[in-house]
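Bit of a strange request maybe. I'm writing a small parser for structure token strings and I need a real example to test against, not something I typed by hand. Could someone generate the tokens for this chain?
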Amino acid sequence: MLRIATTQLYQQAAKTMGDRQTALFKVQQQMATGNRLLTNSDDPVGSARMLGLNEELGRYDQYQRNTGLANSRLNVEETTLEGVGQTLQNVRELIVQANNAPLNDSDRRDIAQQIRQFHAQLVGLANTQDGNGEYLFAGFQSHTQPFTVDANNLVSYQGDQGQRLIKVGPGLDVPVSDSGFEVFQNVPAGNQDLFTTLNKLATALETGTGTPAQLTQFNDAMATGLSELDQGLDHLTGIRAKIGGRMNALDDQQNTNGDFAVHLKQTIGDIGDLDYAEAATRLSRETLVLQAAQQSFVKIQGLSLFNYMR
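Reply from user aminoacidic:
Good idea to test on real output. This should exercise your parser:
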């Protein structure tokens, strides 16, 4: 009976010492990593909650990346439309000059050549690509060049009327593109596109004004062209205003996302971060308990039936 009791004492002492070594090692790991929860078994409920919170934090991180991408793309579009507006304004100034100044047919043909250059510039702007090589104004067909020019200098649209959206927050999808149809073709300028307006103006300037009828036709074309250019500029102003509104919404959402991400991180920290003061106290306690267990184990190792009988 004594031998069995001694064996049991030995095993119990060994187990106690092992448990204390494990507990001490756990405290050391917690202090090294700064994490209270090293395994799910440390706090199943807290671990499950942290998993959900980290997944939500990941979604908000993606929202912030999406916001940056959306801002970048809208900035490119805004800059491009600014160039479009400047091109139309330059054409307008040329038309005013051609319509008012005492110019001859040769002078007007020179102006027509400049307008054709602005026409080509406008086509180039309409075919602008972003940093990823995608066309801004192709709708959903972002890898297809949206505008092509035929031998008669007529421009046709190869894209669609789709508008790309990007999710920047829970339930908030922001448009990050406008189709070429919407920007360049759906203009209240004589039920025709901006390219046609410039092409007709250049053609009118290239036509002689030698007869009263030709002069009247020319003046009418210039007046109509000016009206269509003004309508086109107003149309662009409206689109740029929408882009500005989207960018303001993105800034607001970015701030909201950032604030909520900070809240999530604080909650995650409250659940999983280590209280170093409490851990230091446990480290000291576990060290003392382990030392006591080791001393007890040494004493039990010295026990034997011979020693007991002696």
